[in-house]
Amino acid sequence: MKHLIQAGIAALAVSLAPALPAHAQPALHLDPPLATRSDPMTVVFDARKAPLGLAYTHMTIPVAPGPFTIDYPQWIPGDHAPDGPLQGMSELRIKGNGAPLRWQRDQVDMYAFHLDVPQGVRTIDVDFTVIMNTDLGGMMATRNIMIGNWNRAILYQRNTDNEQYFVRASLIMPPGWDYASALPVVARSGDRVDFDTVSLETLVDSPTDIGRYVKHITTWTGNGTATYLDLFADAPEDLKIDDKVIDAYKNLTPEALALYGGRHWNVYHSELTLSDQLGFEGIEHHQSSDDRAGDSFMTSPAEQLANGDLLPHEFSHSWNGKYRRPFDLQQPDFNDPYPERTELLWQYEGMNQYMGDLLSFRAGIRDPKDYPEFLAAMYATMSYEPGRKTTPIIDTTTGAPYYYCCGYGDYPSIRRTANDFYDEGELMWLDVDTIIRQQTHGAKSLDDYTKVFAGGVSAPKVVTYTREDLEGYLNQVTPYDWHGFFQKYVYSIAPQPPTDEIARAGYKLVFDDKPNKFVAGRAATRHRIDSWFDVGVQMSQKGEVGDVREDSAAWAAGLAPGMQIVAIDDRAFDSDLWTEAITNAKGGTDAIHLRIKQGGWYTRLDLAYHDGLKYPHLERIPGTTDMLSQIMQPRVPPPKKAAPAAASPVPG
Ligand SMILES: [Zn+2]
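That is the input. Now the predicted structure with zinc ion docked in place:
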C-alpha cells in the first residue's frame, strides 16, 4: 500500500517492553465451505450505472437450513486495516426459493448478517446496491472510470477459509467500456465478462478496473507470460504518453526479475487510473495492482519525479508482501475472529519503500543521478521529526490500522504517521544494504538478501515469515548483529534515523540555501510552501499553516496549525515575499513581523529567525566509494528498439 496523505492519530502511550513473541495464533475453528469449486457461489456485478456512482450486485450463496451468517469483508489485504467500506453497502435484499428472508445485523460485529434459512433452501439470492463514492471508502467512480474492488460487491459464508471458498464472478460494464483484470476469463460477450471460478482469496486479490478511455500496453513478455500496464483516464488526452516514459516502465519487469531472481505471478497487470477525482493511492495484489494517480501523472515529468515509485512499489509487493508475508498478517478469513497484526510492516512496507524507489531509479523512471538529492530530502525529513523522541517505529507499525485510517489532524510531526515506517524503512534498509556491502567488501548487497527472501519461480502462493526468519536470511548473506540492529532502530526510541549509511555510502548531509529538487517538487505537487528545515513551518500558498515543527523558530513565535499568515511586515502575504523576508533577515537581529488570522481574530507575532533558507543535500566525501550510484545502477541493459508490438488484446 502506498498513499500520499500523511496519516496518523495521537500517539498512544508507548510501551518499551520487549516485543511479545506473539507467535501464538488463535486456534482455527473454520466451518466447511459450502461454496466449492464444482458448486461455487456466483456474483454478477452490474456496473452499468458506474458513471452515476452506483452499481448493483446479485449473488447466489450456498447455505444450510437453520441459523446462518453471511459476512461483508472487513480486513482487506493490502489495506492492513479493518476498513471494508461497509457504508457503501445498501438496499440489502435476501430471498430463499423466491421468498424474501428476514436478515438482522449482528449487534457487535457490524459486518455480519444473520438469517434463519428455511428447510429445503440450498442457496439464497442476495442483492445489494453499491454506493461507489463514500467518505470512508473514498472515491471509486467517476463519469469515465470505476475502480473495481470485488470486496465491495460480495457477502459470503461466515468463518470459512478464503482459499477453500469458491466464487464464479461476472461483470457488466457500461456500453463501450473496457476492463483489465488478472482474473482468468471464460467468455466475453459485448459488455459482459464471465470469469472462471476462483477462490474468494483470489477474487478479492484481483481488482478489475473498468473505463471509457482505456489503453493496454504490454510492458514485458517472456517464459510464456507477460506484464501489462492498463491505463484508465478521465480525459482521453492523458493517454498520449511519451515513448520515453513508456520505455522506462518497460524496464521495470526485467529490473524486478533481476532484483528478486524469479517471480511468483503467472501474469501481472498494473491497473493505473489517471484521475484527479480518484486521487493518489496504491494497493498491492499478487498478480496485479490497483494504482491511482492524478490526470497528468504519466505526462508530467514533475509527477514522475515526485511519485515515480508508485508502480514499482506495488509491483515489488508481489514478492514482498503477497508471496512472502508476515505470519500474523496472513489470515484465513477477512472477518472476525481473525484480525491481522501489523508489527512486521517494517519489512513488508519499510523494505518495500526502498525497493520501490530503487526500482524506479534502476528502470529509469527517475534519473539515478537524482538519488542523492532524493535521499537528502528523505533523511532530513525523518531526522527533523519531533515525535521520534518519544515514539519508536514499532509503535507506528503495530498501530498501523489506526495510523492509516484516522490521521488527518494537526501536528503529524509530533504524532508520527504511517508515512514514517515507509520512509524510515527505506533509510533503515539502505543502512542494511551498505552494511552488507561493507562487510563483504562489495561482494554482496541487499540484492542477495532479496533472492534469499523471495527468489525462485512459483505460481501465486503465500509463504509466511517471522522476525527471526528475516534475521536468519540476513545472516545467510553476511553474519552481523542484525537482531541488535533492528532492536535499535525499530523496537527502541531512536532520536535520529540510522546515520551511518550516508557516510558508508560515501556522502555527508549538508544544508544550504539552494532548493532541493525533491523538497521543491513535493511542495509544488501539494501546492504548499515548505519552510520546514529553516523556520519550521509548512503552509499553503495562501499562508494557511499546516504543521509547525516543535522547538523551531516558528514554534517559539507561537505559530500553530489553523492560523493563517495574512501579512509579513505589513505587506499582504505571498510566497515570494515569505522567501524574501527569510533571506533578508539572515545574519540580522530584527524579527519578522507577522499578522495572523485565527478564526475571527487578528494578532501579531514576531518571528525571530536569522539563519536564512535551508535545504538538505548530499555531498560526496572525496576518495570514498560511491555506493549510491552502485546501488541505483540498472542491472539489465535497456532493450534494443524493436518494431512496435501489435495492439494487445485484453489479456485474461
Ligand atoms: Zn506498500
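The chain has a mean pLDDT of 93.
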